[in-house]
Amino acid sequence: MSKVGFGRFESLLSELKRRRVFRVAAAYVVIAFAALQAVDVVGPALRLPEYTMTLFVILAFIGFIAAVGLAWAFDVVPGGSPVTAEQDEATRVSAARAHVLAPASDMPCVAVMPFLNLSPDAENEYFADGMTEDVIASLSKIRALRVISRGSVMPFKERGQSLERIAATLGATTVVDGSVRRAGDRVRIVAKLIDTTTDRHLWAETYDRRLTDIFAIQSDVAFHIAAALRAELSLDEQARIRQEPTGSMEAYDLYRKGRSLLIHFTPDSMERAIDFFERALAADPSYALAHASIAIAYAELGEGGMMPADVARPRAAAAVASALRLDPALSEAHAAAGYIMSVWEFDWVGAEAAFRRALELSPSNADAYDLYGRMCRSLGRFDEALELIRRAQELDPLAHRTDVANALLRAGRYEEAVLEAGRAVEFQPGDARAHATLAWAYLKQGKAEEGLAELERAVALTPHHVQWLAQLGQARAMTGDEAAARAILRQLEQRAAAGFVSPYHLAYVHTGLGEHERALDLLERALDEGSGSVHGISGSVLFAPLREHPRFKALVARINPAAAT
After folding, report:
1. Are 76 and 130 members of one domain?
2. Which residues contact 422 (CB under 8 A, 6 or more apart)?
3. Is residue 258 included in any domain, yes or no?
4. CA gyration radius for the chain?
5. Would the N or C end of the chain have less CB density within 10 A of its end CB?
6. H or E stretch covering 367
7. What is the pTM of this model?
8. What is the reported pLDDT for 129?
9. Are 126 and 66 in a shared domain?
10. Are residues 423 and 533 in the same domain?
């Protein structure tokens, strides 16, 4: 049997096991045999016709086929609950939400350590990082595993600690350790799966292949890890893991370079990343992941007030539409669609469905959990928001701390927000957003000096980003330093005359100065333009002084009519 044929046979066996077909068949055979024995015993006493046994055997055989068919069609899941294609929509939505928030602590947890670059050319570092990210993405499609996200494993690239200690920090029970050596069109990849509690190697393999085999290697690694951890895969999961994202190595190379820039989420890095993604699409226009990444980059630029929404929004929408058309089963594309629907379209039902779909397709997609949580936070669903964002942090333990702190801040839990934001600052002292979040947690506690100091640090870390400068202007006004606030306002207006400054950010300073009508003028303009994070104003602590104003309530009603009733 060929490898492909054997692989399909294995996939079929796995799906038959998952749907409990073997179990149903065995139970049916036992019951049917007992019934046949009974007929054989009581038949003569009841003077049944001679053909009775033959008829019973035929009926039993037909019943066997029907039972096995129903077991497959109804997909009997663990716990005995059948799921059909005609399942009621409300039940499906409820089940999807329950799955999204289901405990994951009892699942095997895998951390894929950054693959070491052993290539002669140091510039191939992005390729080794790409291998790490792609193996994580493949494993994340397996529902039976919990996979630590890229953002949390990359700080351990230099292996400054033992694997056991790294695993303990990340909450993982096993780690994948490996290396990549690329030379010309050849690649040598070494990968091994280690149980860090026993230091036992569960699996190891060396691949010496042509570069064009890179996707087959990534799939093989994922399948072997799943097998070693006894994680059952459905046919759908296996098919998605085997799916090659592109047939062009040139496109893949350019995409990996773009991803290495996108993760920094600065205006410059995101615009440079978009350039690489567009070059990747020039090499392969059907590369759905490149389209999805363009959508995320433009959405981040637009929501962050770093680019006019009339530029960012249509580009993001076109990119996500292309991604979904090319690959309707791409988790990243559904997450991007949910992000766009919540930020600009205020389609909260559609956004929630998109996030759930993203998590169905990739249950360890930490970014989808985080974006879903941020949407709930905007709607004032703070308990759900915290649960979702904490799940993102569980999958990406060293990231998403700032989003957790922000959710706590919006929920009025200021002491907890200080603790969480403080941990974020401690871990990433160069993260301006973490400093700004900590600042507002301090300010809400009446600790003006500490709050202003944290905002000053945020501004110093990102001198070209107006968001934190505008928040510093608001804080200066709120703490009685009107002269400093107006000086910052003049800086922002000068920048707006020379380039783009979101009206959403200008509204910060006017709110702090008590100029509420002017602040509301700017917020209405921001809403009309789709500029900045206007979708989340209802729970924003920065706009709390405006909440009882009729114009503010009208704005909230436009964004989320349900909140106004």
Report:
1. no
2. 438
3. no
4. 28
5. C
6. helix 366-378
7. 0.73
8. 86
9. no
10. no
